[in-house]
Automatic annotation (TrEMBL):
Residue stretches making up the Urease accessory protein UreH-like transmembrane domain: 14-202
Pfam families: Cupredoxin_1 (PF13473), DsbD_2 (PF13386)
Domain EfeO-type cupredoxin-like: 232-318
Gene3D superfamilies listed in its UniProt record: Cupredoxins - blue copper proteins
Biological source species: Actinomadura parmotrematis
Protein name: Sulfite exporter TauE/SafE family protein
Superkingdom as given in the UniProt entry: Bacteria
InterPro entries: Cupredoxin, EfeO_Cupredoxin, UreH-like_TM_dom
């Protein structure tokens, strides 16, 4: 695939699927970029320009170095947890929590009439735009994997630049809206955005914990699904079938036999969402699935226990319980 096609592929992914999820994950950084100004157009533009430059450079590195530089599920889980902490910090700042305000060097709490806004030429929007590299959303990972497979610095830069360009319309609209809203809302009204950010922070933290494999195993399986989607072939190999759909994995919970050779069969049919990037945290393994088709993953001979899986964004979990 040439650079133009990679640019178009990245832009399509960003425009059609990545914009809303990335905007949710990176909303805290975007809010920080526009905070303190009644004219958010310039800081939003600087934020997006820095984000574009940073992601294009990352894409070039990924294309040059290949899969050797791709972070594993645990690393990405830590990054999502860090994103959650960032979101929570900005939320507490909006709610007027003194320690958060001092940590962000904002000065007096919200609603103080004597609080002067930060200088309009602050480098903060650019720094926060670059910081989005450390706060990836699920579709960012898909674009990064495509950059890796391009095995070309130009191709990698093209797909990542295209992805950011595809998300730009939504980010621009959200940034302008948030900036103007923050300029209009004062005192207790700012709590609306603060509470919303806290909810997004909790959601992001849960995604990171799932991706890293650190949530408790939980319980419950569906015996009917296990009977339908677990079979043994003529060679005695256990085949566990899971469908990756745009709305999640089906079935998400399965029972299977421990101590026998097992293959995980991943199937897709018109799937274009986060679930195409399939992650097994305990194995540190990512599998990129086709839009339509079947991929087999050799699980060896599993011991008794629960093998968890999740999409690369940490949103859609599932598990196979070997007994």
């Amino acid at each position: 695939m040439d650079a133009a096609a990679l640019l178009a592929a990245g832009a399509g992914a960003g425009l059609l699927a990545g914009a809303t999820s990335c905007a949710a994950v990176q909303l805290g950084l975007l809010a920080g970029a526009v905070r303190g100004t009644a004219r958010p157009l310039r800081p939003v533009a600087v934020f997006l320009a820095a984000k574009l430059a940073g992601h294009a450079a990352l894409g070039a590195v990924l294309g040059l170095a290949g899969s050797a530089v791709q972070p594993g599920p645990q690393v990405r889980g830590v990054l999502l947890a860090a994103a959650a902490a960032t979101l929570a910090l900005f939320a507490l700042d909006l709610l007027g929590f003194g320690p958060a305000r001092r940590l962000l060097r904002r000065g007096p709490a919200a609603g103080d009439a004597h609080c002067a806004p930060p200088p309009p030429r602050s480098r903060r929007p650019a720094l926060l735009g670059l910081a989005t590299l450390a706060v990836p959303c699920g579709l960012t990972l898909s674009a990064e994997l495509l950059a890796v497979t391009s095995r070309s610095p130009l191709g990698g830069a093209a797909v990542m630049a295209g992805f950011v360009a595809g998300t730009a319309p939504v980010f621009g609209l959200v940034g302008l809206t948030v900036g103007r809203t923050m300029a209009l809302l004062r005192g207790r009204l700012s709590a609306v955005l603060g509470v919303a950010l806290l909810a997004v922070s909790a959601w992001t933290l849960m995604s990171g914990l799932r991706l890293g494999g650190w949530l408790p195993a939980g319980g419950g399986t569906a015996a009917a699904d296990s009977a339908r989607f677990v079979r043994t072939d003529a060679a005695g190999t256990q085949i566990v079938t899971v469908w990756a759909l745009d709305e999640g994995y089906r079935p998400a919970l399965l029972d299977a036999r421990a101590g026998v050779p097992t293959v995980l069969e991943l199937r897709t049919r018109g799937t274009r969402g986060h679930t195409r990037a399939f992650t097994i945290p305990a194995r540190g393994e990512d599998v990129v699935l086709p839009v339509d088709g079947t991929i087999r993953v050799d699980l060896g001979t599993p011991r008794a226990g629960r093998l968890r899986f999740v999409c690369a964004s940490g949103h859609f979990p599932g598990a196979i319980t070997f007994r």
